[in-house]
Amino acid sequence: MKYLCVCLMVFAMAVSADQRVTRDEVARRVETVAKTPHPRLFATAEGFAELKARIPTDKLLRLGAEAVKTESDQILAFKPVTRIQTGRRLLTVSRNALYRISTLAMTYRLYGGDAYLKRAQEELLAVAHFSDWNPSHFLDVAEMSLAVAIGYDWLYNELETNAREEIAAGLTRHGIQTSLRSSDGWWVRAGNNWGQVCHAGLIAASLALAERDTDSAITVVHRAVINLPRPMSVYAPDGCYPEGPGYWSYGTDFNVIAIDLFEKCLGTDFGLASLPGFRETGSYLDRVTGPSGNTFNYADGGTGRGTNCAIWWFAKRFTSPELVAYFEHDAYLAHVQRKKKVSEDKGGNRLFPLTLFWLQPIPAGLQPKTPLLWNSGGPQPITIQRSSWDNNTAFFVGIKAGSPSGNHGHMDGGSFVLDAAGIRWAYDLGGENYYKIESRKMRLWDMRQDSDRWRVYRLATDSHNTLMINGCQQRVKGAAKVTSCEQAGDSQRVELDLSDLYTNATKVVRSGTLDTRTRTYTLTDTLAGLHLGDTVRWAMVTHAKPTIRGDELLLEENEKRLLLTAQTTTPSKWEVAPAEGPVEADWNTSNKGFTQVRLLLSAPVSGEVKITVTFKE
User: Fold this and answer.
1) Can you name the residues that pair with 615 across neighbouring β-strands?
2) How many distinct helices (H) and strands (E) make up the chain?
3) What is the band of 184 on the pLDDT scale with cuts at 50, 70, 90?
4) What is the pTM of this model?
5) What would the pLDDT profile of 77-92 be if each residue is shown by its tens digit?
6) Which of 165, 223, 332, 388 sits a CA distance of 20 to 30 A from 361?
7) By percentage, how much of the chain surpasses pLDDT 90?
8) DSSP 8-state secondary structure symbol assigned to residue 470
9) How far, in Å, CA of 464 to CA of 429, rounded?
């Protein structure tokens, strides 16, 4: 009921935003910014000068600035990007352009150097002269618009006059005007990462060109103000992101960009940063990052986590330095100290230069303030159980609730990941390569039960650490619910009702109990309403070496061990198989090095089955 009330409140804010923030109010602010000098996006000339002055005395900033310059030196040897579309996307090119332009422009602002200026101008002219920025996949337009807006604004006074005019014309034609022609496009009112990314890119473009076309800038900004609450509503009530940590980084990075542009250029965030769950989402990545350093990567995403500019923004904006103390500080240092060759085709961390604006000193000894036990709530709920924040000794389990029908959803209701002794033992394999599927004309984005999407091994029930009955997929329109999340002394217990995801059982309940003192985990599944002979498969994907020992399964990796002990109400046996789909389905990744350990059972006359698996170091 609490979650329903929060959702209704956020929805009310979204649909009434055009009444709360009028076009006239936006117009007054945009008309003011149109009279201000360049640069104006993220920092003024004085802001850049202050940043430059801090480099000798601020170690974090110095390392970051030097890393940006080092990457710029490599970019100097590359030819400008060209318009090469892959399938339905130009996105790789847009991202590479954003990486190159933001990196070169930041280097020039901090260090000077005609070579960086000239090279950035070449990139800007190259993309301005493209035939288009692929508006059929509007993320491509949005990221390219941000790239050109940054380069145009930060280098405005140094660009050659003719070049500046051509760049502005390209940004107007391919970015702003294209977006206005597609104002009825679905992305404008999108409730997912598309809304965040597309509005942010066009906000940057319109504010960069505000003096050239003030009326269009007013329209673009007002459109963003009244529509951004829609994708931001998913953060309620406690900051969880339904598309998983990978897409959290994408959507939230651009959401932060939008708010920062509003605050720096227009003097207000229009109330966006105060929407329910948004402040809390600053701790989301820490909550879902296990002691192994891998994330709980439900939906279409990988396990990896690198440095993230939005985390630094949250820490500074809300005076919460603990947000960067657990993982982000070390990730930042690893990024700036590594010696890595820049990819000419794909570039690098395209938003990293923005991090320099939001860096701050981190006091020693800080730990996350978030609880060890978490029921996220939200459209795609998850539970997190953690014994401590000590990565060497902590036990960590994340379990997924929600529905496969969510954006980037998988058939992963009840699926779990598990870390112990710094090792990820139970894996989610993550998403599959989009182009590999789309190039075969398969219906990857069709969310119906019989869609090609569920023929992809990584997306279907088959690959997830959950239950499968009679080899059937979970029900797309079904939804798993968290029915209990409580702590009593050293015991953390969560319970999820998965029944709605299955058509061949009347009851499917999964519960997990973590003893934080002994660091022992017990996963219990209770099923009812099965028919005699129905097969039940319990599964877990692992990268460790498995050894079957009767009712026990020993996992070994990096000289660490985890023992799984099974107890079932009907005869069962362990089985080890490759974690891969059918051989003939050549669109599936091979998942080399991963195996799936399974318990196989047959339902008795009663139709009731109970499976208990205990995990012990």
Assistant:
1) 521, 564
2) 20, 17
3) low
4) 0.95
5) 999 999 999 999 999 9
6) 388
7) 93
8) T
9) 8
Whole-number Å distance between alpha carbons of 613 and 609: 13
Measured distance CA(61)–CA(44) in Å, rounded: 18
Enter the tokens of residue 404. Answer: 């496969």
Give DSSP secondary structure letters for 129-196. TSS---TTSHHHHHHHHHHHHHHHHHTTTTS-HHHHHHHHHHIIIIIIIHHHHTTTSGGGG-SSHHHH
pLDDT tens by residue, 30-57: 999 999 999 999 999 999 999 999 999 9
Question: CB of 572 within 8 A of CB of 599?
Answer: yes
The stretch 103-132 carries a mean pLDDT of: 98
Assigned token pair, 481: 């619910």
pLDDT at residue number 183: 57
φ, ψ of residue 615 in degrees (nearest 5): -110, 125
The C-alpha atoms of residue 439 and residue 436 are separated, in whole angstroms, by: 6
Structural domains of the chain, with CATH: 2-358 (1.50.10.100), 373-616 (2.70.98.70)
Residues 6+ apart with CB under 8 A from 241: 234, 235, 247, 248, 251, 252, 281, 284, 378
584 phi and psi angles, rounded to 5 deg = -70, -15
Q: In 262-362, which residue ranges form alpha helices assigned H by DSSP?
A: 284-288, 309-317, 322-325, 328-337, 352-358
Contacts of residue 544, defined as CB under 8 A and 6 or more positions apart, other chains included, come to 423, 425, 555, 556, 557, 562
Strands of the sheet with 491-497, listed across from one edge: 481-488, 491-497, 507-515, 520-528, 609-616, 560-568, 552-557, 545-549
Checking if the pLDDT of 15 tops 50, the result is no
Give the span between the Cα atoms of 163 and 157, in whole angstroms: 11
Let me know: does 266 contact 257? Beta carbons within 8 Å: no
